[in-house]
């Protein structure tokens, strides 16, 4: 920086006028106008030199400032161009990074959509398989109901009924399994769609950011759409960092991949379930049909021997109407009894057993009702404690151990009540079933021909409508 030259200062004027005291001095009015104060000659030269020096200093400083200004303008122009190029390069790098993440998200969204469609197809198979089980269940229940109309003493729990009950239980278990699997598939489809939506939102944000950065990359100093934004340099409070941004997208991709893998595993599980359930149903169906065939053969043989013994006249020594018969079927041991007495004794025994079970079940229902009533008081106590503790003031309204224990107590009591009520409903239903069985046992139906008609004409004919293994597997 040039040294500032002080402004030119004129020398002080000399106001002392020569006094007219000598012999050659003049006085009077003639010299009055020449006696005013004036600068000396040396003062004039000094003043001129000072002005020359000031002009030289100002000119030199001006040239120096002009040169420095030109140099500064050139440097700042180069710096601005360099920084703009660096910013453009950085924006371009961010564009590549954003494009990479966007491509990853796009691939994951397409994979999730394809996986969701495959899972939807499996869900439809499950629904078709569940619908297909209605026919076997109706056949089995109809067989059981038809066999309930057999006449006494042929109303026995034979191997056919055991297999039918196993088949009914198997179908119910399979239906519950298919329903749970359908619910799991629905939940997985919802999760797939939620994570796909999350990836779509992230992809949409990156697409918008990509377009903005692309527009920023095209801007330059000669662009006509740029303008001043004085407050654009302030950071938003919600702004993320590169690390958090990358972690956010990576977490979204990881969660989507995890759900996609879970969906693929669920599809494999659905395949296994449908294959196993269809095979189990067909195997059980074959077992029931085989049991029906054997039972019909046993009934036919027993009926033939019964008619053979009834039409023989070798029992004249016995009272009228009490000729013995020898049963050789598997339901009877090899012994002789009086016809009618065995059926009556068996019917009375069945009635007594049913009545005993009805009485026990009634006691059980009463005990369950009392147990439910006994649980209501502790539940009200726990709920009252929770209600009173909810009025604790300010910071005293704390989720302490007592609060959690009370909540656990209420939950456990509610679960106990729910279990007891369900058990009560089951017991009441069982009681109703026992009463129905008791009423059915009181009826006098004991014709073996009717049993054969039920097993052959009703049950076995109805079982020809049993669905194929492809239908049970959900393919049709």
Description:
This protein is an all-alpha fold. It has eight helices and two strands, in the order ααααββαααα. Helix 3 runs antiparallel to helix 4. It is elongated. Mean pLDDT is about 75; it is low at about 1-5, about 10-30, about 310-350 and about 440-445.
TL;DR of this structure?
This protein is mostly helical. The chain has helices at residues 41-132, 134-147, 159-218, 242-310, 341-389, 401-442, 448-462, 469-472, and strands at residues 325-326, 336-337.
Shape call: elongated
Task: Just give the CATH class of the domain at 73-217 and 243-314.
Answer: Mainly Alpha
Number of strands: 2
Q: Percent helix among the residues?
A: over 70%
**Widest sheet: strand ordering:** 1-2
Instruction: Predict the CATH topology of the domain at 73-217 and 243-314.
Output: Helix Hairpins
Which radius of gyration do the C-alpha atoms yield?
Answer: 54 Å
Termini separation comes to 96 Å
CATH architecture of the domain at 73-217 and 243-314: Orthogonal Bundle
Structural class, by secondary structure, is mainly alpha
The description of the largest β-sheet is:
2 strands, antiparallel
Oligomer designation: single chain
What are the low-pLDDT stretches, counting only 5+ consecutive residues below 50? 1-5, 10-28, 309-348, 441-446
Q: If helices are DSSP runs of H or I spanning 4 or more residues, what is the number of helices?
A: 8
Order of helices and strands: HHHHEEHHHH
Q: What is the mean pLDDT?
A: 77
Strand content: under 5%
């Amino acid at each position: 920086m040039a040294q500032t030259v002080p402004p030119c200062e004129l020398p002080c004027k000399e106001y002392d006028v020569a006094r007219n005291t000598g012999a050659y001095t003049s006085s009077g009015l003639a010299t009055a106008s020449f006696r005013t104060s004036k600068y000396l000659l040396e003062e004039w030269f000094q003043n001129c030199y000072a002005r020359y020096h000031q002009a030289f200093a100002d000119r030199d400083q001006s040239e120096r400032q002009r040169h420095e200004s030109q140099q500064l303008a050139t440097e700042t122009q180069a710096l601005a161009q360099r920084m703009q190029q660096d910013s453009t390069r950085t924006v371009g790098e961010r564009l590549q990074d954003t494009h990479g993440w966007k491509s990853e998200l796009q691939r994951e969204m397409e994979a999730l959509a394809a996986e969701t469609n495959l899972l939807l197809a499996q869900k439809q198979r499950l629904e078709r398989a569940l619908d297909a089980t209605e026919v076997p269940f109706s056949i089995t229940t109809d067989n059981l109901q038809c066999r309930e109309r057999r006449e006494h003493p042929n109303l026995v729990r034979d191997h056919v009924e055991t297999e039918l009950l196993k088949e009914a239980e198997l179908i119910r278990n399979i239906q519950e399994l298919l329903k749970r699997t359908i619910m799991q598939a629905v939940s997985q489809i919802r999760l797939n769609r939620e994570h796909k939506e999350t990836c779509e939102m992230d992809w949409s944000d990156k697409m918008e950011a990509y377009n903005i950065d692309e527009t920023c990359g095209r801007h330059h100093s000669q662009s006509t759409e740029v303008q001043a934004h004085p407050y654009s340099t302030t950071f938003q409070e919600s702004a993320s960092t590169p690390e958090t941004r990358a972690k956010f997208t990576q977490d979204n991709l990881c969660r989507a991949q995890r759900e996609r893998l879970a969906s693929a595993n669920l599809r494999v599980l659905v395949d296994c379930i449908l294959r196993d359930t269809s095979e189990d149903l067909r195997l059980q169906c074959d077992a029931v049909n085989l049991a029906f065939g054997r039972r019909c053969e046993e009934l036919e043989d027993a009926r033939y021997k019964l008619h053979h013994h009834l039409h023989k006249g070798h029992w004249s020594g016995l009272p009228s109407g009490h000729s013995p018969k020898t049963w050789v079927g598997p339901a009877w041991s090899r012994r002789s009894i009086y016809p009618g007495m065995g059926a009556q004794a068996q019917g009375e025994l069945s009635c007594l057993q049913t009545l005993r079970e009805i009485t026990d079940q009634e006691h059980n229902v009463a005990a369950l009702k009392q147990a439910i009533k006994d649980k209501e008081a502790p539940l009200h106590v726990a709920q009252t404690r929770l209600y009173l503790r909810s009025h604790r003031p300010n910071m005293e309204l704390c989720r302490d151990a007592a609060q959690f224990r009370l909540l656990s107590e209420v939950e456990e009591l509610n679960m106990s009540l729910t279990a007891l009520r369900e058990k009560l409903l089951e017991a009441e239903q069982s009681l109703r079933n026992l009463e129905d069985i008791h009423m059915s046992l009181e009826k006098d139906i004991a014709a073996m021909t009717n049993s054969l008609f039920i097993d052959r004409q009703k049950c076995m004919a109805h079982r020809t409508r049993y669905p194929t293994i492809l239908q049970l597997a959900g393919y049709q």
